[in-house]
């Protein structure tokens, strides 16, 4: 498991990445609206969190590295109470039940050690009929690994809606089945 340490966080938030990453498209295809409550898993130093906060009603940004959380909190100050930063390992913390309309994992699921625990907690946090978007780097996550991720979420009641493989990114959007 390779995780970007806080001292290298400039790699995650820089002008080149900003220019090459269509954050608006990420929010659009994830279904983030001005009324959305969003759970972002693996927020890092806020590269995607910032874009979510500009559009969504509320953001819960999960990150487990204290050094990243420090950077994330500083970057999110301008959004006030609109962003709550959750310092915990998503696999082992109690983040709540059915509060998020949208879940987003941007280049983070492959870095989670206890993926089964993470799937369980994320599944509980997403509302019925809510969506979960998973973006993974093609260089680190092959098709079989992405399919395994989809199957893990499928086993707890999510259905695949959209799937796309690009040159750099694999993407899937899942919807939690309604009651």
Plain-language structure description:
There is one protein chain. This protein is of the alpha/beta class. It has one domain: Rossmann fold, CATH 3.40.50. It is 32% helix and 28% strand. It contains six helices and seven strands. It has helices at residues 15-20, 23-30, 47-55, 66-76, 115-125, 143-154; strands at residues 37-41, 58-63, 83-87, 100-106, 126-137, 158-165, 169-176. Strands 3-2-1-4-5-7-6 form a seven-stranded mixed sheet, with helices on both faces. The longest helix is centred in the C-terminal third of the chain and has 12 residues, at 143-154. It is globular.
CATH topology: Rossmann fold
Q: Write down the overall geometry.
A: globular
Q: State the end-to-end distance.
A: 36 Å
- Which superfamily, in CATH terms, is the homologous superfamily? Vaccinia Virus protein VP39
H and E order: HHEHEHEEHEHEE
Average pLDDT score: 92
How many helical stretches?
6
Helix/strand-derived category reads alpha/beta
Please summarize the sheet with the most strands.
7 strands, mixed
